[in-house]
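Researcher: Last one for today. Full complex below.
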Amino acid sequence: MDNIISLKGINKIYGSEIKTQVLTDVNLDIANQSFTSIIGASGSGKSTLLNIIGTLDRPTSGSVIINGTQTTRMTRSALARLRNETIGFVFQFHYLLPEFTALENVLMPARIRDGRVTPEAMERARELMRLMGIERVQNNNAAKMSGGQQQRTSIARALINNPRIVLADEPTGNLDSDSTEVVYDILRDINERFKTTFLIITHDRRIAQKADRIIEIRDGRIFLDLPNQLAKNIGEQSA
Amino acid sequence: MKTALKIAWRFLTASKGQSLLIAIGIAVGVSVQVFIGSLIGGLQVELVDNAIGRNTQITITARDRGDYVENYQEVAGTLEEAGLGVKRVSPVLDASGFLRVGQDDYPIQLRGFASSNADSIYRLTEALVSGALPESGQVALGINLAQEAGIEAMDTVTLATPRGNTRDVSVSGIYDLKTAALNSRWVLTDIALVQAAFGYGDVASAIEMQAEDPFQADQIAVEMAGLLPQSLKVDDWKAQNEQLLSGLNGQSVSSLMIQVFVLVSVVLAIASVLAISVMQKSKQLGILKAMGIRDGSASVIFLAEGFLLGIAGAILGVALGLGLTYAFTRFALNPDGTPVVALLVDPQFIAISALVAVLSATLASLIPARRSARLDPMEVIKNG
Ligand SMILES: Nc1ncnc2c1ncn2[C@@H]1O[C@H](COP(=O)(O)OP(=O)(O)OP(=O)(O)O)[C@@H](O)[C@H]1O
Ligand SMILES: [Mg+2]
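Model: Here's the assembly. Have a good evening.
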């Protein structure tokens, strides 16, 4: 199977006076269409890793290859296009635009891509918001929704351009355990239907079990990398 | 591009109070500009009208002192047809003499006009305070002379030449040209009377006229001199009124200075407020960049904000400036009810002021636009 993400010898050092090495020699290949979860203690470097994969942050050394392209040498505008069309982000602190409604937030990546809101994008946005159970609040101002609603909105936003990769940083941190399960089932469903590759950071080991593969980060290194047979088996049984 | 505009519009409408404040700031600048411009424009028009509008602007005389313009009718005819941009061509024969009243002689300048154009140049009809303009064989006196000599309209007076010839004429009316020197010296009549009384042939001493555009008078004069025989010379008001000209220039320059300073303060105000706005919106910009908005579009957001604020400020400012101008002409009045200064509302000047405001607002947003282009999403997307 081909790799849609490939990290080679990634190091990340913050600070120039007092140096903090956050990531140390990370090598990681993520298969196309896979569903991977990343776990690890707080401060272990999960978000840093995800931001480097998403080309938001640059590694101190090492290379990031997305979709077969070496990203370290791409121009800012090429990276912007890559992020817009190939990658969907769900940030740890959801980050919606407070000047816009939930629906407008969901539509923003499509608007950036097309320069306008196409009827197809509008239809997809409504569909995603219904899937996420937030169609009732679609015209609410983004800043005036509950934490859980904001999180669902930012998941819908990550999916609007039907990206090949979704990078999600604790996408269900604000949801109760029932809602969390529902959202994960939806993400798995999208993973299968649209062949989207998912890379999800979670604190919740129970949720991590639902992935094809579990990666544990400890002190900026890959500590554990397990193919999750159990999840696979369950997937095959139900199919 | 459209996306950037949409975002700019939403940013502006989301913080209405702040946007309104910036727009009002621009509007105040524009309104001051419109008002000062109209005021100084009006002052200039009034000054020009008073100083040169009621006077000859181009004057043809014989080159040699003491000579006369012989074929003045012919010369006047050619000038009117030459298409030089002159109007109210008026030949005149001037002669110095005396007005004899009883035992007293008053020195006068007898001005014999050959055409009713003189009335238009000096606005004589307007200047009449009693009686009428002189018919053939009559004279009109200035108000100062008339009062000094105790003469009224319809009286008969005696004209005396330096050689001692005298002639009785009737006074058709009294005028007031608002200048004491003229009111006490000029005695207006027709050219034939002066020619006869002083024993001249059919000659004029000068041909006076005005220019369609008074400020072109010097160029017209040069052109005219080329068409006329060597024996005649052409003078224009500009050559003879350097002080007035430099006064007018000074006004224009000070008006320009005021406008430049207003402009600079508007630009600085917009630039600083928009710079703060970029800081306020840096989280949003970081999110947009993470979602793949181009650096170019990110800067267009702030250029568009500057442009839209400029337009709003310009419209508001022109309205405010015109309102101020109107209020001034309504409430700043002379005792007789006329405005202290008749303001000149020049649509072209107003359009330029508005355009300059829009341009400078857009220009001012260049700095925040550059900052927004350079913003790195990682400055905003902080990890937990
Ligand atoms: N800009 C920065 N400058 C310096 N150190 C940083 C910076 N960003 C992150 N770090 C440090 O890097 C380490 C890893 O941070 P990171 O956000 O990746 O952790 P995490 O695994 O996502 O934690 P959490 O589970 O709490 O979200 C932390 O020790 C953090 O303090
Ligand atoms: Mg984190």
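Helices of chain A lie at 46-53, 76-86, 102-114, 119-131, 147-159, 177-194, 205-208, 229-238. Chain A has one domain: 3-238.
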